[in-house]
């Protein structure tokens, strides 16, 4: 794992606002950067943006502005400047020199949060892989000082370049080892998924901090970690949705998404996200109290597309409605997006309604059947309980009378088992 100094506490956030960008978008994005910085435990001293036609290819912002910032960070003792964009390796190097401070771009900040929150060996490997891929094109900058010093510290000319080549090889080797190990885990996961084929799978997806884990807890009576932090959840957790329905419904909580989620990170988390890709239904949780609802929905839909999960039936769940004071806003929201449901994970009634909604989504496709099992076939009873919802069961003289409902596929399987004799 790559370690940076954890002593950095004071941070400053900068951004360029393209002239054609809505001011609200710039401000919301800056406030999201602030939340991420706070999640990292940084003390954000301030934030500002500069309006320009586009970011400068070399210095990102105007030189005059950078001089102003340099003075400010010197006066305030700020050690880290965060940029609300992705910086090219050259821009980052230039800015570090110019500001004489540590510089992180948006991707690096997201990667750092993921690294901090990774708990399982799998998510740790996934984050490290994404970090190394991010670092690879930036190695040149890390050793450039050796060449500039030309032997001043005992290093001969070209030492930096040699060091870069050595590091590049090491990093590449580590990347390939991590990829292999993650592939193995992905295969194990596939085997587990096969074992669960006779269940319905529901994936909870959505923007980070929307309340996915809180809803998962309410729906299944578990108590997974929820926090007012970005990316509190990195690993998928699967639980059975309680209630008398067979096949069982499995609910999986997943990592949250964010605007401009680094592609390397999505690629690394592909295996964790396979629960989303293999789901029969997605609950797309949205924080209804956010003032960026549309953008959050769009981001989530884009990531779903990226991982090939955009064709799965999806129910929009507008959560945190307790924080929306204007009922009209809620009406407009839910009408504007078609099939959707309003919830608050703090309100048990609305969570129960959501649970019923999920069950109905599946049970409405069920076929209801009456069957008489002769006593010599009583061994099939277990199968009936596993593959269908048994609504009524009576032991009669000539056999067991069963009223049950299930999917058309399971109904065929059960009928075939009876006919086999
Ligand atoms: N007021 C209110 N707060 C909520 C609601 N649902 C969740 N929260 C709070 O929102 C914060 C984030 O909740 P989580 O359940 O951790 O959100 P998440 O979507 O799992 O977040 P990540 O795992 O970080 O992507 C926590 O502080 C929750 O207590 C809700 O319906 N109403
Ligand atoms: Mg969560």
From TrEMBL:
A molecular function (GO) held by this record is: GTPase activity
Location comes to: Cytoplasm
The protein's matches in PROSITE patterns, at most eight in alphabetical order, are given as: G_HFLX
Q: Does this entry carry the keyword GTP-binding?
A: yes
Record's superkingdom? Bacteria
For whether the record's keyword set contains GTP-binding, the answer is: yes
- The residue ranges crossing the membrane are none
Q: List, alphabetically, the GO terms of the cellular component aspect.
A: cytoplasm
Q: Where does Mg(2+) bind?
A: 213, 233
Q: Which Pfam families match?
A: GTP-bdg_M (PF16360), GTP-bdg_N (PF13167), MMR_HSR1 (PF01926)
Which keywords does the record carry?
Cytoplasm, GTP-binding, Magnesium, Metal-binding, Nucleotide-binding
Binding residue positions for GTP: 206-213, 231-235, 253-256, 319-322, 344-346
Q: Which cofactor does it need?
A: Mg(2+)
* Subunit: Monomer. Associates with the 50S ribosomal subunit.
Instruction: State the protein's purpose.
Output: GTPase that associates with the 50S ribosomal subunit and may have a role during protein synthesis or ribosome biogenesis.
UniProt-recorded name of the protein:
GTPase HflX
Species per Swiss-Prot/TrEMBL record: SAR324 cluster bacterium
């Amino acid at each position: 794992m790559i370690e940076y100094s954890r002593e950095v506490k004071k941070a400053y956030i900068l951004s360029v606002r393209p002239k054609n960008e809505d001011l609200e978008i710039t401000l919301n994005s800056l406030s999201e950067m602030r939340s991420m910085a706070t999640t990292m435990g940084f003390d954000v001293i301030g934030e500002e943006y500069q309006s320009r036609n586009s970011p400068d290819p070399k210095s990102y912002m105007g030189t005059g502005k950078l001089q102003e910032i340099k003075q400010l960070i010197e006066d305030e003792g700020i050690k880290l400047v965060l940029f609300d964009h992705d910086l090219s390796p050259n821009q980052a190097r230039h800015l570090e020199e110019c500001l004489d401070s540590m510089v992180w771009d948006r991707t690096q900040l997201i990667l750092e949060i993921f690294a901090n929150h990774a708990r399982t060996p799998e998510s740790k490997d996934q984050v490290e892989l994404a970090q190394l891929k991010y670092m690879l094109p930036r190695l040149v900058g890390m050793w450039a000082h050796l060449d500039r010093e030309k032997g001043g510290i005992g290093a001969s000319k070209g030492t930096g370049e040699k060091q870069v080549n050595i590091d590049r090889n090491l990093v590449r080797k580590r990347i390939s080892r991590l990829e292999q190990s993650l592939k193995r885990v992905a295969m194990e996961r596939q085997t587990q998924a096969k074992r669960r084929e006779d269940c319905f799978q529901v994936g909870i997806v959505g923007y980070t901090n929307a309340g996915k884990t809180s809803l998962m807890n309410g729906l299944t009576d578990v108590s997974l970690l929820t926090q007012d932090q970005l990316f509190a959840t990195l690993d998928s957790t699967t639980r059975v949705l309680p209630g008398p329905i067979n096949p069982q419904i499995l609910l999986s909580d997943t990592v949250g998404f964010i605007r401009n989620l680094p592609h390397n990170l999505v690629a690394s988390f592909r295996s964790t996200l396979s629960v989303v890709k293999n789901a029969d239904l997605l609950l797309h949780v949205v924080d209804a109290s956010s003032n960026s609802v549309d953008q959050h929905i769009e981001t989530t839909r884009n990531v779903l597309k990226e991982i090939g999960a955009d064709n799965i039936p999806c129910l929009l769940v507008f959560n945190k409605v307790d924080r929306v004071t204007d009922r009209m806003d809620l009406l407009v929201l839910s009408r504007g997006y078609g099939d959707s449901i309003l919830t608050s994970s703090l309100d048990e009634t609305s969570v129960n309604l959501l649970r019923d909604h999920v069950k109905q989504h599946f049970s409405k496709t069920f076929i209801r059947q009456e069957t008489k099992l002769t006593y010599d076939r009583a061994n099939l009873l277990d199968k009936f309980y596993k593959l269908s919802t048994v609504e009524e069961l009576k032991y009669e003289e000539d056999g067991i009378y069963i009223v049950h409902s299930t999917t058309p596929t399971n109904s065929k399987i059960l009928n075939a088992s009876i006919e086999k004799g």
